[in-house]
Amino acid sequence: MSSPEATVLPDVLTAVIGGKWTAAATDATIHDVHDPATEQVIARFAQTTAQQVDEAVRNAHDAWRGWAATAPVERGRVLARLADTVRAHADMLATLESADTGKPISQARGDIAVTARYLEYYAGACDKFGGETIPQAADTFAYTVRESYGVVAHITPWNAPLSQMMRGVAPCLAAGNTVVVKPSELTPLTTGLVAILMVEAGLPAGVCNIVLGDGPAVGSPLVGHELVRHIAFTGSVAAGQSVGRVAAERIVGAHLELGGKSPTIVCADADLGRAAKAGALAVIRNSGQSCFATTRLFVHRAVHDEFVERVAAEMQGLSVGPGADDPDLGPLVSAAQRDRVLGIVEQARADGAEIIVGGHRPTGRDTGFFVMPTLVASVTNDMAIAQQEVFGPVQSVIAFDDLGEAIAQANDTPYGLSAGVFTSDIGRAHRVARELQAGQVQINRYAGAGVEIPFGGYKASGIGREKGTEALLGYTQVKSVIVALD
């Protein structure tokens, strides 16, 4: 069990280096952290300086030597203890994450459970993952080993701070890497605290360091550091392109998860009730702030009107409010995000789309970054709302007459993260899945998949795969050894 001090956030959060909160630099920029439901300041943090970023990376590099040399079975035992620690502090972590992101407390609890599950899953994989022997001539023996990179930089988003962090960090640690994590400056609260709890639970100091601040001031010196040998980034395409350029210039590997505009095709023979619930779920989870969410519903014209009515009915009953009250939807993360979402909806209206439900701020709620669940119909695939990642509680419906046409339009986007199809014809389902250009395709469901299922995108949705054993492949490098036996 951790000490009481380990569960207390400092008055001003700072970087975590070598298992401890560091002292803020005398000239550090102090940032406020807001509760997006009340707009009140709930915490402050000191931006990490470039010198402290260098210290964090070098400290992690020093820790890597010992961590990489630790027997895989022992690394697994440590990760298992970390999973237990996260579960032991689940209520506290969920409360913090709900206040930080605005998400309903029940969704925050789910995210903390997933965080622990990542650690548990990769704890079991540590001693079951390795190289292979390769058939050769009788006088030669050849084999491969998988080795860690060293220090891996992780830049994580604000929509699910802790589970997104552990999605990459857990397999990194399992493979013998050490990490330096930069959470979003909008939602930094749980990341540093968990790093302290991990050390209390037995993770060697320096194996997981945390730096705080924005991309230009903190992210750039982190990904550009000479001792960072791999980069994992989740965020926008524009920011991912910048990270990718740095990785290319430095000749280091990169995982890039850059968002989506995920289509779902609803055929005339689909279970419309199930499909409508999936369409509504897209705006509920993280208030639609999810790259995975399906936000373009291609619906056969024969069932289009009934389907729109069903989705509208699902959305009209949703509650909106502060995360602590556990509504269906919380606020968006910031005023800028709220205004952007409302602007895209208004553009859709101007383009000729029909706002069936929502499309505005809640009546009578003057504070908080809330947007009502929104359903937009009469959308065509060339509209901005069908091509841009809205990242808010907005669902779009596009009618189709021909399945081939629907597949072509579903693929007509720069993104390719996820997709879905609803049909009672299982042969058709598999044929559509084969044609959809996406890293993950769901059939007759659209919900989050387990930590065991690889996740990542085609096209502009990114490079590499997280989750499952694919993540272990991505966070290791292969060494071939060839031996003469004569």
UniProtKB/TrEMBL annotation:
Domain of life assignment: Bacteria
Keyword check for Oxidoreductase: yes
InterPro entries: Ald_DH/histidinol_DH, Ald_DH_C, Ald_DH_CS_GLU, Ald_DH_N, Aldehyde_DH_dom
Keywords: Oxidoreductase
Record flagged with keyword Coiled coil: no
Residue ranges annotated for the Aldehyde dehydrogenase domain, each copy included: 21-481
Active site residues per record: E257
Protein family: Belongs to the aldehyde dehydrogenase family.
Protein name according to UniProt: Aldehyde dehydrogenase
Organism phylogeny: Bacteria, Bacillati, Actinomycetota, Actinomycetes, Mycobacteriales
